[in-house]
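Whiteboard transcription, Tuesday session. T.W. wrote the C-alpha cells on the left side:
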C-alpha cells in the first residue's frame, strides 16, 4: 500500500491484484444490489429501502423541509432531489444531498433563461441530469425535456407539446436509453413510453396499466439487471414494471413501516469522492462511493494521462499511462469505502493521477488529479 516510493510495478502485478479482486468479490457474494434510496418527506429523512426484505434504514436528517420530492437521482456521487417548497403552482428547487449522512448540502432555485421553473421528473446519465417540466408555472403537463445543470439551470430544451407528452417520471435503462411514465390523475392509469437515446428522442407508447385501487407512481428507476421499478407514493409500495407491456407487479410493501416515501434512486456509478491530507510524510485517505456492496475496489495511480487495460475486461481501460496499484479495499453494505495511503517524504511536489477500479464489474471511477505538498 506504499505509494510513490517503490519502483514502477509491472503489468503482471496489476493483473495479479485485479484478478485477485475479481475472485475475492465473487467469494464475497457480490450480487445486484437490492437496496435503493428514498426520502421520508414527512420526517425529512434520507433512507434506504431493501426490496428483498422490505426493510427501511434511516441514513440521516436532511436538515431542511422537503415538500413532496418529485424525483431523486444520483450524479457524480451525490443525490439530487427536485421539490416544490410551496407546492403547485410554485417553482421547484434542486437540492444536493450527501448520501453518506443524509444532509442537504445546497438548495438552488430551478430556472430556464432566468425564469423560475416547476419541474417534475429527473433522471441522470453519465453524470448529467435530465429534467421534465411544464412550459409555465401554471401549466399542469410536463411536456418539456432538457438538461439540468447543478446550478439549477435548464438548457438544451426540447418541446414535446405537439404530441401531448407528460413527463411525470423519467429513468435511463442500463443501455443509456430514456423511458418515461405518465401517471394519469387520480392514479387510475399509468402510460409507459420508450424515448430512446439522447439526441434522437422518440415518444413511443409501450403499454397502459389500469390501476384498481388507484396508484400514484412518483418515481421510476432501472436496476443494473434491467428491471424497472416504480414507487407508489399512495401506498408506500415498490411495483415492478414490465418494459415490454407496461404492466405492474407488486415487488415490495413498506406500508407497515408507517412512512411517507417519495423518490427512488439506485446507488450511483463508482465515484472517487475525495482524497484528503495530501501532505508528504503523512497518511492520505481516499473515499469512494457508488459501487456494489462487497465489491473489491482497487486504487491505481500514475504520473501521466494515457491508458492501461484492465485485465479480463476486454477493451476497458483506466485513463492513466502505466497505472500502478496503491491498494485495495472492500466496499461496505452501501457500496462506499475508504483507503488509507501513507505518502513518503519524497512525494512532496509530485502531481499524481488517481482512479478507482472495480475489476469484477469492469467499472472505473472518475479520474482525479492531485498534487502532494
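and on the right, the sequence the group agreed on:
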Amino acid at each position: 500500500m506504499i505509494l510513490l516510493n517503490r519502483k514502477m510495478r509491472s503489468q503482471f502485478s496489476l493483473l495479479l491484484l485485479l484478478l485477485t479482486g475479481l475472485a475475492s468479490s465473487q467469494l464475497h457474494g457480490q450480487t445486484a444490489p437490492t437496496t435503493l434510496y428514498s426520502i421520508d418527506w414527512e420526517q425529512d429523512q434520507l433512507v434506504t429501502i431493501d426490496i428483498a426484505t422490505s426493510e427501511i434504514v434511516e441514513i440521516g436528517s436532511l436538515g431542511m423541509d422537503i415538500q413532496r420530492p418529485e424525483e431523486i437521482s444520483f450524479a457524480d456521487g451525490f443525490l439530487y432531489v427536485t421539490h416544490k417548497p410551496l407546492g403547485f403552482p410554485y417553482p421547484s428547487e434542486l437540492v444536493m444531498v450527501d448520501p453518506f449522512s443524509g444532509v442537504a448540502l445546497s438548495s438552488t432555485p430551478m430556472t430556464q433563461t432566468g425564469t423560475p421553473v416547476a419541474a417534475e421528473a429527473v433522471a441522470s446519465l453519465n453524470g448529467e441530469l435530465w429534467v421534465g417540466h411544464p412550459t409555465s408555472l401554471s401549466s399542469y403537463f410536463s411536456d418539456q425535456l432538457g438538461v439540468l445543470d447543478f446550478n439549477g439551470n435548464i438548457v438544451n430544451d426540447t418541446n414535446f407539446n405537439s404530441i401531448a407528452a407528460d413527463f411525470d417520471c423519467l429513468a435511463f435503462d442500463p443501455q443509456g436509453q430514456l423511458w418515461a411514465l405518465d401517471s394519469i390523475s387520480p392514479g387510475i392509469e399509468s402510460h409507459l413510453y420508450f424515448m430512446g437515446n439522447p439526441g434522437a428522442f422518440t415518444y413511443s407508447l409501450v403499454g397502459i396499466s389500469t390501476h384498481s385501487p388507484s396508484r400514484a407512481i412518483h418515481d421510476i428507476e432501472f436496476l443494473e439487471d434491467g428491471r424497472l421499478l416504480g414507487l407508489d407514493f399512495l401506498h408506500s409500495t415498490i411495483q415492478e414494471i414490465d418494459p415490454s407491456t407496461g404492466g405492474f407487479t407488486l415487488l415490495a410493501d413498506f406500508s407497515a413501516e408507517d412512512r411517507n416515501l417519495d423518490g427512488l434512486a439506485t446507488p450511483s456509478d463508482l465515484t472517487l469522492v475525495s482524497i484528503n491530507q495530501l501532505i508528504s510524510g503523512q497518511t492520505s485517505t481516499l473515499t469512494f462511493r457508488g459501487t456494489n456492496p462487497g465489491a473489491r475496489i482497487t486504487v491505481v495511480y500514475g504520473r501521466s494521462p494515457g491508458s492501461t487495460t484492465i485485465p479480463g475486461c476486454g477493451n476497458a481501460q483506466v485513463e492513466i499511462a502505466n497505472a500502478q496499484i496503491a491498494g485495495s479495499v472492500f466496499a461496505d453494505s452501501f457500496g462506499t469505502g475508504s483507503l488509507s495511503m501513507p505518502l513518503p517524504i519524497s512525494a512532496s511536489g509530485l502531481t499524481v493521477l488517481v482512479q478507482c477500479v472495480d475489476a469484477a464489474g469492469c467499472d472505473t471511477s472518475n479520474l482525479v488529479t492531485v498534487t502532494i505538498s
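Someone added at the bottom: Helices lie at 11-27.
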